[in-house]
Amino acid sequence: xxxxxxxxxxxxxxxxxxxxxxxxxxxxxxxxxxxxxxxxxxxxxxxxxxxxxxxxxxxxxxxxxxxxxxxxxxxxxxxxxxxxxxxxxxxxxxxxxxxxxxxxxxxxxxxxxxxxxxxxxxxxxxxxxxxxxxxxxxxxxxxxxxxxxxxxxxxxxxxxxxxxxxxxxxxxxxxxxxxxxxxxxxxxxxxxxxxxxxxxxxxxxxxxxxxxxxxxxxxxxxxxxxxxxxxxxxxxxxxxxxxxxxxxxxxxxxxxxxxxxxxxxxxxxxxxxxxxxxxxxxxxxxxxxxxxxxxxxxxxxxxxxxxxxxxxxxxxxxxxxxxxxxxxxxxxxxxxxxxxxxxxxxxxxxxxxxxxxxxxxxxxxxxxxxxxxxxxxxxxxxxxxxxxxxxxxxxxxxxxxxxxxxxxxxxxxxxxxxxxxxx
Length: 423
Description:
Blueprint: H1 2-15, H2 19-25, H3 28-36, H4 39-52, H5 57-81, H6 85-93, H7 95-126, H8 131-147, H9 151-162, H10 167-174, H11 179-186, H12 194-207, H13 210-222, H14 230-257, H15 259-262, H16 273-320, H17 334-353, H18 361-370, H19 372-385, H20 395-418
């Protein structure tokens, strides 16, 4: 007990440092949220704006608190158990369920990496860079960052790359949306239309993805955050949630105000970043439509590729028991770094060899939505069963978390099934 009291005293001194502590803690939440607005999410938001104008904009705003509630559970679990998501599932529910969970993570990882590298290749081709060159540069960069760095260095690089996503706010501002049209779209949601529901499911799947949960909880454990950092980690997650959905809203607004008006028949094909950018250029000009949007896409794709690949390496490491930390040298944790390298190289190779797979971008997000019952089910059950009793969900907030999880998963599955005929 004396040692425990000393730890509490030390923790209170650390937490008293205010902004310094917040800046030290900040990272896992903001990085995972910047990765949340990945290439697939950008395409989904753009397609939403083209096909439905501003009628899916309200959904982006409503998903802000949903995203926070879900990812805040990973903060609690990571801080108060000290374990990653896969490890906690294995110790709580057994190895079989852990493999089920990490199997879903593997599917989500493959789909996500295809979208990230398709975005990188698409931007490269816009500037005359061959696909093999842009993919090779991206792959070497991603391998070098992780294989030669610690967790904190990887986190700083990811945050720097994520800053490029601020370019999407410039694109939205330059698209000059009309206030009256935006207001009308916010109040009109055709929930009986199957095509609309399909994009609702895609947007939900673009916001809550399996690899996000694995990454943030494992990053918190790898960063060795303690209970004294809990409030700061919550603010990190809240700030990231607002930024992530604001970026999605910005892309939707830009597409609705430009491409949506030029193609009112909703016949525009937006299966790739190249399609979106080419259609933005006539309305926004080459500097904003091509250069600014391109840089934003590169930032989104690269930070997401780092997060997705690390989430997969952490997840499989936690389930199998092999060493799984960025603090280990590659020679001391060969399976961890090997899984990361295979994910990165494999994703790039698939996009290079089968470029038409980019047409599956929205389908990947719907797949994420269909997996939500499993993903959110594990997360909520862990919050009730795996955390120390004093930190478990209780009272009205517990009911709120359960209600939000059930509603979100149900809407995602219903929308995905309703729009299955569109595939």
